Amino acid sequence: MIKSGLKWMFLIIGTTIGAGYASGRELWEFFGHESGLAIVLFMVFFITSCIVIMTVSYEKQSSEYRPVLRVIVGNRLSKLYDVMIFLYLYTTTVVMLSGSGATGQAFNLPYWWGVAFISLVLIILFSKDITGLLSINQIILPVLLIGLLFVLIVFTIDQDLSLFSHWYEQSNWTAAFPFTALNILPLIAVLGAVGNKVESKQEIWFAGIGSGVILGVISYIYNNSLIQISDELLLYEIPLFAILKNYPFQMVILMSILLWFAIFTTAAAGVLGIVTRIKGYLKQPLWLLVVVTLLTMLPLTTLGFSKLIGILYPIYGILNLYVLTRLLLFPIWNNMEKG
């Protein structure tokens, strides 16, 4: 149970910790000052949502997200949200490709080298079907999480920061709703594609609680660190590099590699959601669908990483609030509809 639970926990975390999150850009967009309570609420909402999505997916034994979506938002709205999920996965995968280009630029490499490299690795990954993604998540994510936590804790100690000094200032608590909502749609897409591989409800609870607690703790420490350097964040495309600026160059290289892995796992999760959705229409090998999908995305990566996040993420966060409400109230609404 624990081994399987860890597999799904890392899939959830890998779907959530992408370029926007790991770089700090997404956290700063929604949280910032007076957001401690917002992050605690996000953790509770996230755990609840993951457990509901995985339970529905498990009960439906789904291999793509539409059956799960119909249960969560109802038949009438499922068509609208089907389109939204597809657009969300598509545009956020474009953001990840762009993020790979931005990470390459930090090492004075051409932008297109970073974009081409991640595209090539994604094609190789999906040549081994979905099992390749699950296997690589279990290797990459523990290293990423430990590395990110290490940097944030070292920064907190070096700067002599208190984690709870502003706990009485909580005016931004409502940010928990759009931030959680932003991360819900990709989870429906990805967890909806693996329902037929989940074996027990214990796995679901382990994965839901584990992923929520880990993301909640990292989000809190990360946000606390960003508050200390808020004046400098306008100068950085990737806020994480503002935290790292006084550290040895080797640490910058290590975290840039880990940041790229975070980008890669989310891009892989997005591609998984897209290709499992269109496989029903186009009876082609998974790797070929990945190649075609990535080729259509390349022209859009020219818009730039922080610009894409600044425009798209707040919009998606607001549009997804209805889905979040359905998930949080799912046990009540589900019983009413059955009655």
From TrEMBL:
UniProt keyword terms in alphabetical order: Membrane, Transmembrane, Transmembrane helix
TM region positions: 38-59, 80-99, 111-127, 139-157, 177-195, 204-222, 249-274, 286-305, 311-333
Domain of life: Bacteria
Protein name in the entry: Uncharacterized membrane protein YkvI
Organism (species): Oceanobacillus limi
